[in-house]
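FAQ: What does the model actually see?

It sees only this:
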Amino acid sequence: MLRVEELPHDYDHSQPSSAALSTTKEPHPSTPQGLSPTAISQSTPFPLPNTAPASNGTTTTPSLPPQMASVRAHSVDEIVDLMNRTPLFMTDLSPEALAENPELDAIRALQYEGTRAEVAQGFRESGNECAKGKMWKDGKEFYTKGLAALRAERNEEEPGLVLDEEEEREKESEIEVACYINRALCNLELKNYRQTTLDCAHTLQLNSKNIKAHYRSAQALLSLSRLDEALDACTRGLILDPTNAPLKVLLTKITAAENLLDEKERKRQERNMLKKREEGMLKAALMARRIRVRTTTQPPEMEDTAIKLVPDPLSPTSTLVFPVVFLYPLHLQSDFIKAFGEEQTLGGHLEYLLPLPWDEKGEYKDVEAYMETIAGGLVKVGKKIPLLKVLSGGKVEVVDEIVRISVVPKAKAAPWIDEVKRRKGKA
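And it is asked to produce this:
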C-alpha cells in the first residue's frame, strides 16, 4: 500500500524526494574504477567478427557470453592459427612465422628499452639462466647480445634520461667483464677452445686480476695440448691467488700431461733410433751378400711386409727373408709369399702350391721359373737353388722390396721366352 508523504510548506521542489533516492541504482561493487561492467564482460580471448547476426526480437534463445561467442565465431583451424601467432603458444619458429608478428615485435622491443647498461644487464641475466640450466649454446648467444648492446650508440636524446657518466661506465665495464668470462665458460663447455682463449684474453684486458679468466684459459689451452701456455696461464692465476684449489688441481693435470708428453717423446726418439739401427743393419747385410735393391717413385702399399732380418733385426747372424710374388704370366695369375727365407728353395714352396686350383688342364705339373735381369733379359731359377744364390752376384735386383719370379709350364717355356725377348727387342 502506498503512503502519501506530506510535504512542509517551505519544501524546495528542486530536491529529489526520499522515494526517488531509494530507487537510485548503486554502482556495481566489483567494477574497477575507470572501467564499465560492459567493457569487462566483453573482454574476449579471440576477436569477434565485425558483423553479427541481427536479432528480430522474436527468438527466445539467450545470447552467448562474449568470451564463448568469440570461440564459437572461429573454426578450429582459425583458432590454432591465432594461438600460433601468440608468443606464449607459438609452435612454428620459421622465419616466415616470425617475420610479421606485432606481439613478438613488441616483446623484442622491450629488450632494447633503457640505457646500454640496462639492456646489456638484461641479456646477461638471461645468459646466466641458460648457463644454470647448462644450455650453453643459448647462453653464449645472450652474452654475445649483451656485448653488442654495450657497443651500441648511446641514446642521449631519450626524454627523462639523465646519466651519471662515471657510474654508467663502471656498470658497463662490470657487465662487459661478466659477459666475456661467462661466454668463455659456454665456449669451453661447447669445446670451442680457441674462442675460449680469446674471450679470456678480452677479460684480462679489462681486468688482469680475474682468476676465472686465467683458469678457463688454462683449461682450454690444456685441451688444445698447448701445455707451455696452459702452464703459464695457470701459474699467473696462482700468483694472484696461491690458495685457489681449482687452479692447484689444474696445475697437477698440466704437469701430468707434460710428463706424459715427455714420456711419449722419449719413446718416439727411442723408436726412431731403433729403426735407424735396424735399417743400418739390414743395409749392411744386403751389401755383405751382394744383393742389389732399388725403390721406385711409387712403391706398392705393403703394410708391414718388407725385407727383414729374423729373428733379431740387430744381429748380423739373423736370416734374411723376402716378400716373393710367383707370377703365372700365361694365365694372368699370381701367388704371394710374405716371408721367403734366403736359404729356402723355389721347389720347397712349389711343393705346397702345386697343383694350382685354377689349372684345369694340369699344365703346371712340370714348371720352370725365371727372373728378369738388370739388363732386361731372363735368368733361370733352379728349383733346388737357395734364394740367396739367385739374388747374390749382381745379375738381378729386388725392386720395391719384392722378389718377382715368373712360373710357366715347361712345355710352353720356350715360346714364352721368345715372346718376352721379342717384346723387349732382344730377338
